[in-house]
Amino acid sequence: MDPLTSIMAGRIALSSKKFLRYGARMPRYALKIEYHGQPFSGWQRQDGHASVQQSIEEALARLEPGPHRIAAAGRTDAGVHALGQVAHCDLKKNWNSFRLSEALNFHLKPLPIAITNCSMVSDEWHARFSALERYYIFRLLSRRAPATHDKGLVWQVSHDLDLEAMQQGAQHLLGNHDFTTFRSSMCQAESPIKTLDLLDIEKITGWSGVEFRFHVKARSFLHNQVRSFVGTLERVGAGHWDAGDVKDALEAKDRSRCGPVCPPQGLYLNQVRYEQNPFEN
User: What is the pTM assigned to this prediction?
Assistant: First the structure.
């Protein structure tokens, strides 16, 4: 094949792929997803381990021949839950959004994953890169008796915690900082600098007893950042750290100065915010 023919053939092939991807035959769908994280190795597909991503991709393959690859707003770790994870998928067929969510939920049974909303979006919309803010909630239960109904859904400690002290410690973490201290050594982010928009703690009395809920918002997070915050602030609430020690740990920019990283089962990806809510259509 001469060079000109080769170039033209390449352009035709590229044009064909672009038509399949961007044309009406491959619409993009946003999925709002809820899941219990306990049975999974996390969101991201991993060879030899059950993941939320793989489970949804296999359900999609039952609707349309694959392979399928979906992208999500947050790659939650093993044991972390979601109330409002958001992902997107590209399909060949024009699906009614409600029927697509119903079909996926049928094929996801009996796994603890549910598609709670579905909407067609533009080709430029991306679940991860279009996100403006991620909102996590962490549930910390304070009671001596073992949790029963909330087992696997909260981090439980047997001692009392000082809410005001934890709130004071949390104030040192708000804003734009180098969060090296609160970043996993395995974090792959290029920079440890992030802006924390909200870290609010409330004390409530639920059916399992006294619960502290941490509300955390930022555009993006470092690996294990939220769990590092909560584990450190729990030490403040327990009286082992002063609120000012949080400031000292932050300014040290040293991972060894972080408090204990708390377990994952109390963490929930609650909501992802976009410029325009894809599920309002």
Answer: 0.89
